[in-house]
């Protein structure tokens, strides 16, 4: 049990000395890890150095999320559009993914992290797929933070895929067309076992979604920042969560 002397009461809430309300944490945070290339460019380094530095930021953010008791963390690592990049950059990103999983998986497992992915991973290099499957298998019974990595993920691709699979079920008389509703549709998305994000974070100064979780973010709160992903640290995450806690989520209703 944490010492209560660092906490004070704000109404019914428990707020710590940083201003963080531990009773009102977002259940699911989704992050568009953007700005690696510009971070490197600013330092006269190759873009891949930016991606490497991005992995360091990732390590810290997973650690902090886990410590705070966040339940789901979705990380946009590679989009369906990122294949447009030069082959060398794409392979460097795939290599980095393999390296990261190999190096970190036992520590993640020790910390009770459960690895999941969204996106069509069948298009990734075999070695990357193997590493992903073994990480998922190793951590499948963990019940701590779910780290959900978006790889070859595109929300439009996900929606089209869901539509095709639902059509197939209708054709096979498994689903009646009139039964299709938002809940059923959600079950056909990559995120079927994951609640919608409460908070979406995009660093790097871009104010766009870039084909990330279009269905799931209908009522998410957004937090944008000019900071490049490799510089995104514990403080940034806590600031984003505190800002989130000061939002009034109405979901179309009134207070
Ligand atoms: C995000 O950083 C990493 C991936 C998209 C894989 P970028 O590589 O997009 O960095 P910028 O946006 O060019 O700075
Ligand atoms: C979004 O970043 C994808 C990831 C972070 C993986 P991009 O850098 O690909 O997005 P755009 O091109 O700026 O929209
Ligand atoms: Mg980018």
- Which spans have pLDDT < 50 for at least 5 consecutive residues? 1-5
What is the helix/strand order? EEEHHEHEHEHHEEH
Number of helices: 7
Structural class: alpha/beta
Helix content: 25-40%
Q: Looking across the biggest beta sheet, what order are the strands in?
A: 5-6-4-3-7-8
Q: Terminal Cα separation, in Å?
A: 34 Å
Shape: globular
Mean pLDDT: 95
* Distinct compounds present: 3-methylbut-3-enyl trihydrogen diphosphate, magnesium ion
Domains (count) = 1
Binding site for Mg(2+): 34, 221
Binding site for substrate: 35-39, 47, 51, 79-81, 83, 85, 202, 208-210
Active site: 34, 82 (proton acceptor)
Cofactor: Mg(2+)
What's this entry about, in short?
The chain is α/β, with parallel strands linked by helices and 255 residues long. It has helices spanning 36-42, 47-68, 87-110, 126-139, 155-171, 182-186, 234-245; strands at residues 7-10, 13-16, 28-32, 72-79, 114-118, 146-153, 199-202, 221-224. Belongs to the UPP synthase family.
Protein model, in words:
This protein is an alpha/beta fold. It contains seven helices and eight strands, in the order E-E-E-H-H-E-H-E-H-E-H-H-E-E-H. The strands form two sheets. It has a six-stranded parallel β-sheet with strand order 5-6-4-3-7-8, sandwiched between helices. The chain has a two-stranded antiparallel ribbon with strand order 1-2. The longest helix has 24 residues. The structure holds 3-methylbut-3-enyl trihydrogen diphosphate (IPE) (2 copies) and magnesium ion. One 3-methylbut-3-enyl trihydrogen diphosphate (IPE) binds next to helix 1. Belongs to the UPP synthase family. One of its GO terms (molecular function) is ditrans,polycis-undecaprenyl-diphosphate synthase [(2E,6E)-farnesyl-diphosphate specific] activity. Homodimer.
